Amino acid sequence: MKKSLLIFLCCISVTAFAQNDITWNMDMNLANNTYSNMHPRMSLDGDGNPLVVWGRMSDQAVFFSRWNGTAFTTPVKLNPSWLSVATASWMGPDIASHGDTVYVVVKRTPEASDTNHIFIFTSLNGGVSFNNPVELAIIGDSLSRFPTVTTDATGKPIVAYMKFNSSFGDSRWVVTKSTDYGTNFSIDKKASGWAGSAEVCDCCPGAVVSEGNACAMLYRNNNNNIRDTWTGISSNNASTFTTGFALENHNWMQMSCPSSGPDGVIIGDTLYSIFMNGAIGGFRVYISKSLVSNNTLVSTIGITGSIPGLSQQNYPRIASDGYAMAIVWKQSVSGVAQLPVLFTNDITTGFPAAYDTVDLGDITNADVALGNGKIFVVWQDDNAGTVKYRSGTYTSSTTGLAPLVSEENSLFELYPNPVVGELNIISSAKEVFSATIFNSYGQKIISETATSKIKLNTSGLIEGSYFVQFISGDKMATRKFIKK
């Protein structure tokens, strides 16, 4: 354990300013500045094309644009006239996708009202069109802010938000989920409160991430003005959060709210989380590595080494695809704002000792996504007043190509893959289980139950990507297969 930890810490140290693993394209404006540029967030559709949302403060609007293969589409205003949306440079709408099912969550303004709740927009065709907004009415008479969204293994939305009582007290993070793809939601479950104080940092956004049955709610705590980063953990697909732990141990005493939250990804049993902390040398970005199954913090370290002229770092975001991982953040060096990216095509070997600089200028906030050997970065450029976009390509790892196997992913065998006719699903434990096939829209196609083996005739399925959800007792796993 000590040896692997040392390798991780050494590999993540950053001192240089060039990274040769990515072949970059030129940057471009996603749209002209009449659409503004507040707090862009990004996900990918089923073909790996970027989908972007951002806000416009002047009329409290949220815009959506997607890459159609050659260019970004003309931005579409998602919110109707009666639904004003909270947005700023440090917080705003969020987006998640699973195949061609896309979710956008927003907070209605003004915030100081127990009738202005969280809303979700759903698209089942990759963002070509969206359904009318659905209110998460389970909030009741409480106040709310900072919605964030992810999807479970079958494409159903998991939404988290901060919740208060009617006096803006008792700040906590709660999580709710939908079993019908964004039409109805469960009663929210509290996911915070694992530190010495039940309060959370009430003006810091959070992030919810999911992998298999595991779900992590990342947030900044407020334990008598100690504002370190914590996570609540669910092992039952966000139904309940029964454990939680600290993602750092800086004990940052900060009297005012820093308005900056964490982000994270789960790979196998490992939670990688990034966040800003000001306990040592001013605002700096850190990455931590934790084991989800036993609530163990393995390491926390600064994302860069010593940089001459560095005054601050903030607003980190992280993305992964397989074993590839990328982190973007804002930093100021000698008075110049920079947008760095740190990338590895195989996180099992750690990060390289170099980061790349995507852009220089009046940069405020950014986001990153990875998919199919491509990297995508969007950012808020306040000099041009636009959302900027840049893409690149990388070579996938040849040493980390083994499947991301967890205990849950070993519950069943699935073959052949790709499949033409009959698909075999075999339980490893030889127990009663159910197998359900979902298409890339998250729609249920076939469901059967058996003791040890199921043979499914796929001849009626059109060619494309599908998912098998395996459930046995309280265990669940999901795998993708291709129908030819």
List its salient traits.
mainly beta, 1 helix, single chain, Neuraminidase, Immunoglobulin-like, globular, 2 domains, disordered N terminus, 48% strand
Could you explain the architecture of this structure?
The chain is built from 1 helix and 36 strands. It is mainly β. The protein folds into 2 domains: 393 residues, Neuraminidase, CATH 2.120.10; 76 residues, Immunoglobulin-like (Sandwich). The N terminus is likely disordered.
What's a concise summary of this model?
With 484 residues, the protein is mainly beta. It is 2% helix and 48% strand.
CATH class identity of the largest domain? Mainly Beta
Domain tally: 2
CATH fold node name of the largest domain: Neuraminidase
What is the second-level CATH architecture of the largest domain? 6 Propeller
Q: Could you give the distance between the termini?
A: 44 Å
Which bin fits the share of residues in helices? Answer: under 10%
Sum up the overall morphology in one term: globular
Strand content: over 45%
Low-confidence stretches: 1-19, 400-409
Largest sheet: 5 strands, antiparallel
Q: In angstroms, what is the radius of gyration?
A: 22 Å
Number of strands: 36
Structural class: mainly beta
- The whole-number mean of residue pLDDT values reads 87
Q: Specify the number of helices.
A: 1
Secondary structure layout plus pairing:
Blueprint: H1 2-12, E1 22-24, E2 28-29, E3 38-44, E4 50-56, E5 61-66, E6 76-77, E7 94-98, E8 101-107, E9 118-123, E10 134-135, E11 143-151, E12 157-164, E13 172-177, E14 189-190, E15 207-211, E16 214-220, E17 229-234, E18 243-246, E19 263-267, E20 270-277, E21 284-291, E22 296-302, E23 310-321, E24 324-333, E25 336-344, E26 356-360, E27 363-371, E28 374-381, E29 386-394, E30 412-415, E31 422-427, E32 433-439, E33 444-450, E34 453-457, E35 464-472, E36 475-483
Antiparallel strand pairs: 1-29, 2-29, 3-4, 4-5, 5-6, 7-8, 8-9, 9-10, 11-12, 12-13, 13-14, 15-16, 16-17, 17-18, 19-20, 20-21, 21-22, 23-24, 24-25, 25-26, 27-28, 28-29, 30-31, 31-34, 32-33, 32-35, 35-36
